[in-house]
Amino acid sequence: MPSKASCLYILTVVCWASVLWYLSATRPSSTYVGQHSFSQITFVRKDSNFSFSNIRTRPMNPHSFNYLINEPRKCEDASPFLVILISTTHKDFDARQAIRETWGDENNFKGIQMVTLFLLGKNVDNVLNEMVEQESQIFHDIIVEDFVDSYHNLTLKTLMGMKWIATFCSKAKYVMKTDSDIFVNMENLINKLLKPNTKPRRRYFTGYVINGGPIRDMRSKWYMPRDLYPDSNYPPFCSGTGYVFSADVAEAIYKVSLHTRLLHLEDVYVGLCLHKLGIHPFQNSGFNHWKITYSLCRYRRIITVHQIPPEEMHRIWNEMSSKKHLRC
Ligand SMILES: *[C@@H]1O[C@H](CO)[C@@H](O)[C@H](O)[C@H]1NC(C)=O
Ligand SMILES: *[C@@H]1O[C@H](CO)[C@@H](O)[C@H](O)[C@H]1NC(C)=O
């Protein structure tokens, strides 16, 4: 018969066993926790300077590309009234030439200094790079940085333009960013909108303002993944087919972009930067981001029209130039 004493004995043994088991089970893990927090502390201490300086000064989106072709002297000793930055692709030789010979001709306006520049990245096809290099040696109006030139990198092309203005042409008054399939009515842009005889504006931005939100349909050209942009609205932005701003905005956008996560939709991204800067884009109905069938009177009222192939660019330009005396 087990006595009370042996019962007590068994109970004690069980208790001790539990205590020992508990200690053996928890000791390694508590040691582990101790080591972990210790190593974390030393880690933080060792790197504290490093990580703090990172947070403050290291850009999230550094635009650290190199120029493959540059025209650093284009603005030297000059403060152009208007710099036109034209986003283009390598194979669009005809479009660039059409623009040079029509609305983009830097000598169109007597007494008003204008600079026209084409923006490119690096093509995967080296033959095209070499052809552009030769074109640049003739015209000296092309800027190329060494990012891969692609539709998804259009934002980099725009930022390259902003950086170029900030670095090499900060005394310019106004800047236009447009594409090589756009017809621009320069007369309207310069004399009606920007008015060379008035005091230049600052923190000014205008174009065809779009108030919209992300398109989540993957088949769309403007598809925006939710993880890249979770909000359901974009801040107001100007259609990338043509927008105009005072030159101070170029540097502001470039600087704020260094700390703004890159989005592949160039015009949306610029809108995001403007929002961070507290600059509101003005709506101007002269900027059309679609095609308008040519008629003299219609084209006299607009500032931009989209989808104009090179031959049509020449035709429209010649028409309008030869009919300057006609009234509408
Ligand atoms: C932290 O920065 C200060 C001042 O720049 C420097 O003197 C110190 O050595 C740095 N400490 C570490 C751990 O890098
Ligand atoms: C954009 O350019 C960067 C830098 O050259 C390159 O690494 C990346 O692949 C390009 N992205 C696309 C979608 O072409």
From TrEMBL:
The chain crosses the membrane at residues 7-24. Its cofactor is Mn(2+). Pfam families: B3GALT2_N, Galactosyl_T. It catalyses: an N-acetyl-beta-D-glucosaminyl derivative + UDP-alpha-D-galactose = a beta-D-galactosyl-(1->3)-N-acetyl-beta-D-glucosaminyl derivative + UDP + H(+); a beta-D-GlcNAc-(1->3)-beta-D-Gal-(1->4)-beta-D-Glc-(1<->1)-Cer(d18:1(4E)) + UDP-alpha-D-galactose = a beta-D-Gal-(1->3)-beta-D-GlcNAc-(1->3)-beta-D-Gal-(1->4)-beta-D-Glc-(1<->1')-Cer(d18:1(4E)) + UDP + H(+). InterPro entries: B3GT2_N (IPR045821), Glyco_trans_31 (IPR002659), Nucleotide-diphossugar_trans (IPR029044). It is an enzyme of class 2 (transferase). Pathway: Protein modification; protein glycosylation. The keyword Glycoprotein applies. The keyword Manganese applies. One of its GO terms (cellular component) is Golgi membrane. SUPFAM superfamilies: Nucleotide-diphospho-sugar transferases (SSF53448). It comes from the Eukaryota. Residues 58-83 form the Beta-1,3-galactosyltransferase 2 N-terminal domain. GO terms for biological process: lipid metabolic process; protein O-linked glycosylation. It is a single-pass type II membrane protein. It is found in: Golgi apparatus membrane. GO terms for molecular function: N-acetyl-beta-D-glucosaminide beta-(1,3)-galactosyltransferase activity. Its main location: Golgi. Its EC number is 2.4.1.-. Belongs to the glycosyltransferase 31 family. This is Hexosyltransferase.
